[in-house]
């Protein structure tokens, strides 16, 4: 599946649908203005000129618009914390990183594996413990502040593969940029509904009191009634638009989940269980309709008008074209007679081991991963290994490191240890930098973690950063900044910037800054590729040079990238400067302003340069992951 083409298509339709919200607001304003003019306006009398109603109508328009806009902004601001705020608004509770509960441990493992495979930091994980239905959602403004929330029904009823399919579906919403729109839809719905709430207040406090005092409450009562009627009618149509926006994205999310996991049985099995079980995907929380558009399944009993998802059978048949409805009955019968032993009884706190296969041998892709390289992408077989590779990397992480990155202070120490040089002559200066910034106690922990890192596979460095990210976000802002500044000092201690060290520092800085200010996360740009020509040339040159041992090979890899990005153009090769870091980062910031199709072409060009020699090194894989994070793009399957 082409993420970028689907992003462009679905976002275009979503923009049109959001435009309908604007039309709905205009219609509401016109309706309220008509009621105000009828009840309070100046009407012409015989032989007398009527005073102008423009000031009255202008005031009415501004009040209604102001009420909707301010209420929407208030609701959106209340969710300024991103995914965490949305999850807590529906009563979800955070899943502890060191949980010993087998179901929650399995959930964490699955989410961490999907995050590694998709090249994004591990999101905050939440559970709706009182919800027996099978449902889930992802929320946030960007990958750096995302939260994934599942119901207890998911844990109780889904196998590991099915849970994996549901989580992959939610991650596709993260990568497709759906989350920011989802939060704004919540604000718009609230802003329109507020009109009805205000109308009830006007009738109760305004119309009733005026009527008792001087008998003049009829006009106020009429305006209050109009606010109620128009508010609920507007809310009705807003719900219709909400459902249309959601439906336009759910088919993409189902297909994307298959792309992540490379199998349809998981997500199809979850959808079948929703169809079979009496609870289905329904939620019991009071404000379920507010988040209906971001859920895995319908929040309530099916209603064709307000359905936020395609019908279940349609979704299943899109995944399994030969599926027949009668199979649901046989599946329900088999579930009733099957032994109901917990599916994850063999799960331990060790992450990454698939359930239901006790003592499973090491995945065949793991030796190649641990050797520090992977075959170049070459078709379905290479793509199919992407998720398996992520699970293998996750499984192979040393237990001590997996435990350490679950807690803020020890995660900080692991990040500092990752930046320590293997050259003995540089280590004393680096130890002084750490001690000056954090003290001798942290330095001692860093040295302990450095010993543990000796057993870590090189390809697992950035996945370890992704797993540590939820803990690092919990550090105070000042301590986060000190960490970033210290990392910069550590990587520059020898007067040069090593590629691995640069990738670590750049990735953490980018993601922690976005997590601190989630609402300022970048949105899709509007620039076309020719506008960023120089930036494309420089980034491709840096990537080509990083993957080649000599300038001739680098020039060849760079020319392949240029043919992909600017076919038919004659462009002169210019080696990247010795001090490449600053211009490289400026170029990445420039490319982040590209339109999604242009970003796709950049990523394709970089992939062509990386694959020029037929091998993807660890350094190239890490650099590509950092570039994709900087451009807010999914990492392509390798």
UniProtKB/TrEMBL annotation:
Its cofactor is Zn(2+). Keywords: Cell membrane, Hydrolase, Membrane, Metal-binding, Metalloprotease, Protease, Transmembrane, Transmembrane helix, Zinc. The lineage of its organism: Bacteria, Pseudomonadati, Pseudomonadota, Gammaproteobacteria, Lysobacterales. It is found in: Cell membrane. Residues 105-320 form the Peptidase M48 domain. The chain crosses the membrane at residues 17-40, 52-74, 185-207, 219-238. This is M48 family metallopeptidase. It comes from Rhodanobacter ginsengisoli. SUPFAM superfamilies: TerB-like. InterPro entries: HtpX_protease (IPR050083), Peptidase_M48 (IPR001915), TerB-like (IPR029024). The keyword Cell membrane applies.
């Amino acid at each position: 599946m082409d993420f970028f083409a689907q992003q462009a298509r679905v976002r275009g339709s979503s923009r049109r649908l959001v435009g309908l919200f604007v039309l709905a607001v205009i219609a509401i304003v016109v309706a309220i203005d008509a009621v105000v003019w009828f009840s309070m306006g100046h009407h012409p009398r015989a032989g007398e000129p009527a005073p102008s109603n423009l000031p009255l109508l202008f005031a009415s328009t501004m009040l209604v618009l102001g009420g909707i806009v301010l209420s929407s902004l208030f609701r959106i601001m209340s969710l300024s914390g991103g995914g965490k705020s949305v999850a807590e608004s529906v009563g979800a509770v955070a899943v502890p990183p060191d949980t010993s509960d087998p179901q929650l441990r399995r959930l964490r493992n699955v989410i961490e594996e999907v995050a590694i495979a998709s090249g994004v930091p591990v999101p905050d994980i939440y559970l709706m413990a009182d919800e027996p239905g099978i449902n889930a959602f992802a929320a946030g403004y960007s990958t750096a502040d995302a939260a994934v929330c599942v119901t207890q029904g998911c844990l109780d009823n889904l196998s590991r593969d099915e849970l994996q399919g549901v989580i992959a579906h939610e991650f596709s919403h993260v990568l497709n940029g759906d989350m920011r729109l989802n939060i704004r839809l919540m604000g718009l719905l609230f802003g329109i509904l507020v009109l009805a709430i205000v109308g009830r207040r006007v009738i109760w406090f305004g119309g009733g009191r005026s009527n008792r005092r001087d008998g003049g409450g009829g006009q106020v009562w009429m305006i209050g009634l109009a606010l109620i009627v128009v508010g609920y009618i507007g809310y009705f149509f807003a719900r219709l638009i909400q459902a249309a926006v959601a439906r336009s994205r759910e088919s993409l999310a189902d297909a994307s989940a298959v792309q992540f996991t490379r199998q349809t049985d998981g997500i199809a099995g979850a959808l079948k269980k929703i169809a079979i079980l009496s609870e289905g995907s329904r939620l019991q929380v009071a404000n379920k309709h507010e988040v209906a558009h971001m859920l895995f399944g319908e929040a309530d009993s099916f209603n064709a008008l307000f359905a936020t998802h395609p019908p279940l059978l349609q979704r299943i048949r899109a995944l399994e074209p030969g599926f027949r409805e009668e199979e649901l009955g046989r599946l329900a019968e088999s579930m009733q007679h099957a032994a109901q032993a917990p599916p994850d009884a063999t799960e331990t706190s060790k992450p990454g081991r698939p359930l239901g296969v006790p003592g499973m041998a090491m995945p065949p892709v793991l030796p190649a991963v641990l050797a520090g390289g992977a075959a170049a992408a070459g078709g379905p077989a290479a793509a199919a290994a992407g998720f398996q590779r992520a699970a293998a990397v996750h499984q192979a992480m040393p237990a001590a490191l997996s435990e350490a990155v679950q807690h803020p202070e020890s995660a900080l120490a692991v990040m500092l240890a990752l930046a320590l040089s293997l050259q003995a002559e540089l280590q004393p200066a680096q130890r002084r930098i750490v001690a000056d910034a954090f003290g001798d106690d942290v330095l001692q922990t860093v040295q302990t973690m450095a010993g543990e890192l000796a057993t870590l596979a090189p390809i697992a460095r950035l996945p370890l950063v992704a797993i540590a990210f939820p803990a690092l976000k919990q550090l105070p802002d000042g301590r986060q900044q000190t960490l970033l500044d210290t990392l910069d000092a550590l990587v520059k201690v020898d007067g040069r910037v090593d590629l691995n060290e640069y990738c670590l520092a750049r990735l953490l800085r980018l993601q922690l800054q976005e997590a601190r200010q989630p609402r300022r996360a970048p949105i899709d740009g509007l620039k076309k590729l020719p506008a960023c020509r120089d930036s494309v040339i420089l980034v491709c040159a840096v990537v080509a040079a990083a993957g080649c041992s000599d300038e001739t090979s680098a020039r060849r890899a760079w020319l392949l990238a240029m043919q992909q990005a600017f076919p038919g153009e004659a462009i002169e090769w210019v080696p990247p400067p010795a001090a490449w870091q600053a211009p490289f980062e400026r170029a990445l910031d420039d490319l982040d302003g590209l339109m999604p199709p242009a970003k796709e072409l950049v990523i394709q060009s970089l992939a062509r340069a990386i694959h020029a020699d037929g091998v993807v090194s660890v350094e190239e894989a890490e650099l590509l992951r950092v570039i994709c994070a900087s451009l807010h793009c999914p990492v392509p399957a390798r």
